Amino acid sequence: MENQPSPSLWSIDDRHRTRPTPTPPTQPLLPVDVVEDKKGVCGSETKTKAFDICTPKQSGGPVVLKPGLFAKNKERRKELKQSSKEIVELRPGMVHLKGYISRTDQVKIVKKCRELGLGDGGFYQPGYEDGTNLHLKMMCLGKNWDPQTSRYVDQRPSDGSVPPKIPHEFVTLVHSALKDSQTVTKLSNSKDLSLFSPDICIVNFYSQNGRLGLHQDKDESEPSIAAGLPVVSFSIGNSAEFLYGDERDVDKAEKVVLESGDVLIFGGKARKVFHGVSAIKPEAPISLIEETNLRKPGRLNLTFRQY
Ligand SMILES: O=C(O)CCC(=O)C(=O)O
Ligand SMILES: [Fe+2]
Q1: Who has greater pLDDT, 152 or 28?
Q2: pTM of the entire predicted model
Q3: Cβ < 6 Å from ligand 1: which residues?
Q4: What CATH number does residue 197 fall under?
Q5: Which of the listed residues 15, 74, 193, 196 has the most CB atoms within 10 Å of its CB?
């Protein structure tokens, strides 16, 4: 499966033949990186600061010396070498598509997530019932996952916001990744990676100390889990150490590094695999950061599921 053409996110009809249609003009981003959301629950006024996953462009301020041209070109050559495509079956039902999302599409995903993340239902700091916070920022699309109750609801309880819809371009890319991953699982069981219609996407943003403990994704509906409908995960930005295993035990877990542009899929027999993120690594593609101003270090992860 080496060197497959990468699907383009904005070419809808036939990703292998059609040139990507020009990016639709993005809505103007909100003017400031902090948005005050005055919609409260039950009429009370709460102020939620939307988290900006990108660093707003500075006007004035201290001059930052950029790396020289030679150093930059060297970085880019390294990036090109590293972005080799490969599909690896990690275990039955669990597939790692390395370098699957093109750099252009990664840029589009970051920009779209930033735009949505600054609006109603955008990035916030999730916390558990006992008052502890998750070590990441979160935004839900389609339906809201509530960490306090581990349930999906239509509105975010903390501010009453309604989650934005999943952009259809994201769904197109999920379907392409599933179809391509089925080719490697033909010999084992391609039903593990059956096509589905994602109606939920949880978008996580990890900074330097971001992490996520070992857990199972099991809050989707019973029929969805029973059918083994897969979870499809996109990684963008800094690389991450991703753990997975049969039990909630870090010492027994296996480890894989997820890099920018990687897609990970787990369904069928692997649908209830324990998984988590143990660390964010320093590596990030320089061209992506330059084009998007994604915070450094910063890792965006999108997991698509069907309720
Ligand atoms: O960030 C990741 O790679 C995993 C995210 C995850 O497991 C989740 O959101 O349930
Ligand atoms: Fe998960």
Answers
A1: 152
A2: 0.81
A3: 202, 204, 212, 217, 233, 240, 242, 275, 277, 301, 303
A4: 2.60.120.590
A5: 193
d(CA 297, CA 121): 24
What is the end-to-end Cα distance of the chain in Å, rounded? 31
Does residue 51 sit within a domain?
no
Distance, in Å, from the CA atom of 13 to the CA atom of 222, rounded to the nearest integer, reads 33
Torsion of CA 257, 179, 154, 203, to 10 degrees: 20
Cα three-residue angle 166-227-121, rounded to 5 degrees? 20
- Rg (Cα) of the chain, in Å, rounded? 19
275 Cα to the center of ligand 2, angstroms: 6
User: Residue 48 and residue 273: Cα distance in Å, rounded?
Assistant: 34
Atom of ligand 1 nearest to the CA of 136: 1
The answer to whether residue 288 sits within a structural domain is yes
**Which atom of ligand 1 is the closest one to the Cα of 264?**
3
Asked if residue 201 is part of any domain, the answer here is: yes
Condensed to tens digits (0 to 9), the pLDDT of residues 157-198 reads 999 999 999 999 999 999 999 999 988 765 456 566 778 899
96 is in an annotated binding site: no
